[in-house]
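Bit of a strange request maybe. I'm writing a small parser for C-alpha cell strings and I need a real example to test against, not something I typed by hand. Could someone generate the C-alpha cells for this chain?
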Amino acid sequence: MWFQDTWRVQVGWYEPIPTTIATQWLEHRSQLHRMADLKVSRWFGTGTTGSFTELHLFADASERAYAAVMYARTIHADGQIVVSIISSKTKVAPIKPTSLPRLELCAAHLAAKLARSVLYSWGNQRYLMFVWTDSTITLAWLQAHPSRWETFVANRVSEVHEVLPAECWNHVRSENNPADCASRGVTPLKLLHQEQWWNGPSFLRSSNAFWKSGSSKTHVTEFGLRKKVRAHLTHSDNHWSVMTKYLSYSKLKRVMAYVLRFVFNARSITLHNAEKRCGPVSSTEIAEAERRLINAKRPIPLRSSLLRLQPFLDSNGILRIGGRLKSAKLAYESKHPAILHKNAPLSKLIVADIHRFTLHGGPQLMQVVLQRRYWVIGARNLIRNIYHKNVVDLEVLTPGHFMVGEPLKSIPEPEGQGFRGTLHQRWQLISAIRRHFWRRWRDEYLVSLQRRAKWFRPSRNFKEGDIVAVFNELSPPTKWLLARVIHCHPGADGRVRVVTVKTSTGEFVRSIAKLWLLPTKKDLFSEE
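Reply from user aminoacidic:
Good idea to test on real output. This should exercise your parser:
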C-alpha cells in the first residue's frame, strides 16, 4: 500500500518519498524485531482418533486491499474444539477507483483461489467447507446464477462456484471477520496481540454450530444486474425485398426501370438543362435496371470456389467471370457472364423467365440460354427444380410412354426420300448444318469451359536464366536433359507458357508443361 501511495503522488525513482509515508515505514520497521516473539503451532489438531475437522474461510475488502484467511476447526473425541490458522492471501486494490462491492467480490474470488491451493497441497482431501463474508451484496451475487450479472461479476461468480458453491457461503458481522485486519493493515506490534487473526472468531470455538442448520438467509440485490436488451426479430438477408415481391423477371426489370427514372427525374430538378424522362421505358433503361439488380460490391473470400472462375468487377460493379474464353469470338456477355448464386431471388426469377421464354423447354435448353448471359452457381439443381415445378403432372398415356418411357414431345416428321436439288442448294444446306453445329457447339459446350480445373492460383512466371529439366517420357528422370531458359514468350495476359531453352545439343522451343523448374542456390538459401 505504501508503494501505491508513492505512485499516486508520482514520486520519481531518485526522489525522496513524502514525510508521512517515510514516518509510517520507519515506525513499521522499528517494530519488526518484535515478530521474533511470535509462536504459531504447526499442528492443526487433525488426524487424531475420533476427531473431525472442518474448514472455514473468511473474506474481506477495504478501499486499499482485500484478503482471505483459512482456519481448521477440529472437534476431538472428548469434545474439545481447536481452531488453527492455515493460510492467508492478500492483494492491494487497483489504483483505478473500484466500488467496494466489487472489491468484496474480489476477496471472495481470492478465497476460492486460497481454498484450491490448500486442498491441492493436502492431496485434494475432502472436508466440510464454510465461507464467510460481511458483504450482503457479494452474498446476493454468489447465491444467484452468474448469467444474471454483468460481465465483471458473472466471470468471478462463475470461477468462485467451481471451488466454493453457493451453499458454502454465510454472512458474518464485520467485527467478527478476522480478514478485516489483513484488508486494512496492522502494525507488527498490533498483529502480535490480534487474537482473532491467529485463532479465528470466538464463535468457531463454541459448541453451537449454528452455521450447520441450513437456514441461511437469501440475499437479493439490484446492483450489478445485467442490462436487459430488447431484441426485435427482423428478416435479415442481403436481398432487396422487391426481388421477392414479383414472380416475373421482366416485370421486376420494368419496375426497377421506373424507380431509376423517378430518381433521375427527381435529381434533374436541381440540374440545369436536364430533361425529364417520360413515356414507356426504353431498352436503355431496362438494361440499366438489370445492371443495378445484379450489381455486386461484396468481397470474395480467399477460399471461395469462385476463384476458379477468375472473377472480376466490371465498370458497372457487376461481378463477372474472367474465365478462359477471353480470346474467343463471342459476345462480351457470353465470354464474361454475370455471376449469381442459386439461392438469390433474382436467380430464381431469371431461370423462371427463361423457362417461359423457351416455351417450357427442357433443363439442357434452359441452361444453354442461361449461360449466354449469366453464370449461376449451382444452376443445374435450380433449373431442375423450376422445370419440374412447371411440368404438367397429368399427361395422356400414349404409345411413346411404352417406347421411350416418357411422352414423345417432338412433332413427327413425314417420311422423306432423300435430298433433291441442285449442287448449289446442297452446298447451302451443308453450310447451314455446319453453322448450326458451330452455333450449338459455341452455345452449349464452349461456355462450359469457363471454370478452371487447375492453375487458378498464380504461380511464379518462368524467366530468363532459369534452370529446367526437359521432360522426356521415353527415358527416366535421371536421364532428362538439363537446360537454361534463354527467352520467354509471354501471352497477352503476361503469363509465360512457352519458352526457348538451350541444352547441350542445341536450342528448342518448349511448352512449360514439358519443363520442370529446378531450384537455384538463391531459392534454397533465401532469407524467406
